[in-house]
């Protein structure tokens, strides 16, 4: 009897395993290798991005393994999925199955209460508070102020110069716009102090999370701590001004968030959420817009017919203004062709290479198992450069966006998609159009650097896109 019980106890796990396998192939892991624990394929991907072969790296992986594969990225087992259906799954999936979680390095540097980390209800609460400031109806009143920031930037950094390195200058411009409009920081010395620490902070966001003194990750963590201390002080000052009625609720994004109340008259957004989301806005608004403006200038210089069409549209607007009169909301509405050029730039050179989600439970996807706790990785270029979706994808053709309805859903994703689309996309549109207006109407330029760029993790053109510039005679 004892032998029979022992035999049953031995055979039971085997029988259960065989039964589990017979339930179907939907429970098998995707093809691919997890590689070395923690490191996995992280070094290979980062090396490919820094040699401008990141797109080739993910496409070769897709050709080898198909629409889903497993690997290890930035310390965690990961599943790579791609295509329109994958994008829809990522951006519009069931919130009980997939969470909006980033890599551990991003989470450690930006904090765990930003919009990239929050679940459904918390995400909606914080996003709604953000949108009360970032919706078009609210941003209309800030076009003139943004125009002033661009004019001042050109006067300080472009006038009298024969050559300029565009990307570093655009990063200064977009950071100053963020400081002014979103944070209410007007003193140049305070802005420069923020910028120095901020730039060091973002260098290690896509990195292997090894906290050793010589790593980029460790340097970024230390810079993040300094930035958070500065922001805490800034938020506290704004709290005091609101209490003393020395500031208005919509003076800037921080005062707006501090002023938001729920139905019980309690703060809608906590101090920690304000702090972490300010850091997210700093990263998103600083890097994405500066990259977009830079690569628009690069692509305009290589496509004369497109440049002439943009120039004509912008000069028509300039001629309708009095001397020194700032741009207004109505002027932006006339920049339809220029924004199509911007969207085609975003298609060909998306600032965000890809992103991550977290499986909250075991998921059957494409005939395979995505285990609970694994990362889900997606890459923008997989649909942006798909010749079935965008014929001749290597050709720069703004006409693709003449009719937005002709672009298939979840195929063009520079700002994400679905309920988690970037809340700052309208802000980015405004600052891009205002900057391009002044640059194309005030200067002509030609490329002085080669045509290469790398990703670190954002696109960085050779020599920061070095241009020889010449001021135009004002008509």
From TrEMBL:
Residues binding heme: 422
Gene Ontology biological-process annotations: sterol metabolic process
Residues that span the membrane, as ranges: none
A family per Pfam: p450
UniProtKB keywords: Heme, Iron, Membrane, Metal-binding, Monooxygenase, Oxidoreductase, Signal, Transmembrane, Transmembrane helix
Signal peptide: 1-26
Predominant location: membrane
Family, similarity comment: Belongs to the cytochrome P450 family.
PANTHER family per UniProt: CYTOCHROME P450 (PTHR24286:SF190), CYTOCHROME P450 26 (PTHR24286)
Name of the molecule in the record: Cytochrome P450 716B1-like
Native source species: Rhodamnia argentea
């Amino acid at each position: 009897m004892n032998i029979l019980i022992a035999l049953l106890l031995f055979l039971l796990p085997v029988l259960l395993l065989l039964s589990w396998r017979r339930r179907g192939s939907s429970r098998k892991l995707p093809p691919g290798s997890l590689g070395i624990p923690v490191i996995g394929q992280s070094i290979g991907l980062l090396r490919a991005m820094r040699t401008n072969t990141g797109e080739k790296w993910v496409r070769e992986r897709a050709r080898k393994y198909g629409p889903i594969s497993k690997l290890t990225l930035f310390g965690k087992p990961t599943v790579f999925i791609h295509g329109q259906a994958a994008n829809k799954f990522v951006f519009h999936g069931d919130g009980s199955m997939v969470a909006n979680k980033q890599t551990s390095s991003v989470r450690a540097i930006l904090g765990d209460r930003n919009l990239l980390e929050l679940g459904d209800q918390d995400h909606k609460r914080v996003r709604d508070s953000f949108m009360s400031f970032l919706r078009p109806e609210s941003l209309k009143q800030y076009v003139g102020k943004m125009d002033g920031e661009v004019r001042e930037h050109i006067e300080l950094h472009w006038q009298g110069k024969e050559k300029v390195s565009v990307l570093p200058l655009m990063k200064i411009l977009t950071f100053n716009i963020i400081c002014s409009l979103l944070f209410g920081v007007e003193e140049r010395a305070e802005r420069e102090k923020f910028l120095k620490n901020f730039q060091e902070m973002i260098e290690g966001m896509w990195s292997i999370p090894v906290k050793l003194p010589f790593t980029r990750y460790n340097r970024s963590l230390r810079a993040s701590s300094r930035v958070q201390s500065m922001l805490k002080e800034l938020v506290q000052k704004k709290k005091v001004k609101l209490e003393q009625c020395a500031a208005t609720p919509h003076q800037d994004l921080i005062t707006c968030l501090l002023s938001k109340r729920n139905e019980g008259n309690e703060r809608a957004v906590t101090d920690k959420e304000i702090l972490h989301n300010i850091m997210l806005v700093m990263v998103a608004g600083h890097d994405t817009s500066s990259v977009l403006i830079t690569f628009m200038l690069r692509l305009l210089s290589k496509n004369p017919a497109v440049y002439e069409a943009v120039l004509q549209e912008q000069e028509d607007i300039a001629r309708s203004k009095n001397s020194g009169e700032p741009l207004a909301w109505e002027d932006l509405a006339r920049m339809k062709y220029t924004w199509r050029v911007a969207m085609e730039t975003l298609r060909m050179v998306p600032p965000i290479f890809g992103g991550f989600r977290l499986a909250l439970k075991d998921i059957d996807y494409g005939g395979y198992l995505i285990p609970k706790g694994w990362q889900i990785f997606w890459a923008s270029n997989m649909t942006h450069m798909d010749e079935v979706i965008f014929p001749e994808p290597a050709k720069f053709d703004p006409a693709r966006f003449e009719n937005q309805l002709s672009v298939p859903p979840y195929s063009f994703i520079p700002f994400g998609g679905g309920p988690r689309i970037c809340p700052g996309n309208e802000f980015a549109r405004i600052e891009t159009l205002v900057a391009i207006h002044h640059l194309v109407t005030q200067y002509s330029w030609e490329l002085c650097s080669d045509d290469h760029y790398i990703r670190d993790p954002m696109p960085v053109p050779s020599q920061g896109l070095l241009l020889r510039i010449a001021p135009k005679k004002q008509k």
